[in-house]
Amino acid sequence: MRIGPTWTGIGRSCGATSLARGLVIAAPRSGSGKTVITFGLLAALRRKGHIVAPAKIGPDFIDPVFLGRAAGRDAINLDPWAMTADHQRALAAQQAVGADLLLVEGVMGLFDAAADGHGSTADLAETLGLPVLFVVDADRQSQSVAPLVAGFARWRPGVEIAGVILNRVATARHERMLTRALAATGLPLLGAMPRRPELVLPERHLGLVLPGEIDAFSAFLGSAGQAVEDYLDLSAITALARPLPAAPETPPGLPPLGQRIAIARDDAFAFLYPHLLDGWRAAGAELSFFSPLADEPPAADADAVFLPGGYPELHAPILANAKSFQSGLRAARDKNALIYGECGGFMVLGQTLVDRDGAGHDMAGLLPHTTRIDRPRRVLGYRRLLHEGALPWPEGLNGHEFHYSSAKQLGLPPLFEALDAEGTRQPPMGGRLGRVMGSYAHVISAAQG
């Protein structure tokens, strides 16, 4: 049975502080190569004996899986839009316990944020007081790299770009031109990575594919680490790291869904936030895991069942024939357990899932809706969520929505009322029927104020 990440809580001791140092990896824009650079840095530093704790900025589920595999310890999400500054500091400090370096991969471009202007990589770097390694895609430019880097470096006084990494450098001559131009910025050049087609990661509609789906993944990891060792100055990079700030006790997280929570986890249900699971454990909840793709039912004694997001559309025939899984869900409903599905989990709670080829597959049928991905339309953004109902969470929540499928609702009361990051009202989300409920929202934290 292949399953998704295995959040064990290593290095996240509640309330602990850390003297570890940290760095943020950022870029001018998405697609500059910061994920592969971060991945390779983790692999190379680990190979040299460093204990490196990985983190990812923003509501990303897939990059943290790669970062965790490279570091040999679970990655966490740090979200400067959805989390308070104290929450970010506390999670970063907990993640760094037992490590000598916290390496944080940014999201999009350094200053890119939600529509309200909050939640950027720069926001997180300033909150934690960490320097930024700036990854620049040098493809199809030469001397123009200097004003690009200089502009970013001077844009926000509270954010320090400590060094530059060039990516996709074409030739030795190209590198010399870039190096001479960058000298005028006064920023150290920490290395120049040549074009490496073998280090391009495959993608699908929600981002990168999961590591378990990449043939020869260990070889890919080794190649990325070796490329970083060959072309980047690891000693100079680690010397730039700065100590993390002292952190308060972790603010209370979202309350557990129940005392005994059964959580679906495999390649179809891989999108989970580790900080939520850690918070539930800290509150005394007992967590168990099961694989719907292996036709496993939730634990019979569970008083709550959580179906997280993932890729059920890629496994719809298997899920349609997972009779033990589906009957286990119905048994949990019949004994009045709380059953909650997010995004992909919400899709599976419905009656039918229509795949990309237009074929319909019977799902659990606990909620009377049909979802379909044969007419893909991207929906993406942060959400302020309001709810009234059986969820044991505060009335106001922060979450995120990212999907290409759509749902046809059949007259149920919605689970959430929703606003986007700018406060614009969105269509009501999801549905609830008794203690069965779900929506496309991925909940991150309680809303503040």
Automatic annotation (TrEMBL):
Site feature: Increases nucleophilicity of active site Cys: 442
Pfam families: CbiA, GATase_3
Active site: 343 (nucleophile)
Lineage: superkingdom: Bacteria
Claim: Ligase is one of the keywords in the record: yes
GO molecular function, one term: cobyrinic acid a,c-diamide synthase activity
Claim: Signal is one of the keywords in the record: no
Pathway membership, UniProt: Cofactor biosynthesis; adenosylcobalamin biosynthesis; cob(II)yrinate a,c-diamide from precorrin-2 (aerobic route): step 9/10
Signal peptide: none
Written domain comment of the UniProt record: Comprises of two domains. The C-terminal domain contains the binding site for glutamine and catalyzes the hydrolysis of this substrate to glutamate and ammonia. The N-terminal domain is anticipated to bind ATP and hydrogenobyrinate and catalyzes the ultimate synthesis of the diamide product. The ammonia produced via the glutaminase domain is probably translocated to the adjacent domain via a molecular tunnel, where it reacts with an activated intermediate.
Function: Catalyzes the ATP-dependent amidation of the two carboxylate groups at positions a and c of hydrogenobyrinate, using either L-glutamine or ammonia as the nitrogen source.
NCBIfam families reported for this sequence: cobB, PRK01077.1
Further remarks about this protein from its record: The a and c carboxylates of hydrogenobyrinate are activated for nucleophilic attack via formation of a phosphorylated intermediate by ATP. CobB catalyzes first the amidation of the c-carboxylate, and then that of the a-carboxylate.
Name the record gives this protein: Hydrogenobyrinate a,c-diamide synthase
Taxonomic path: Bacteria, Pseudomonadati, Pseudomonadota, Alphaproteobacteria, Hyphomicrobiales
Encoding gene, per UniProt annotation: cobB
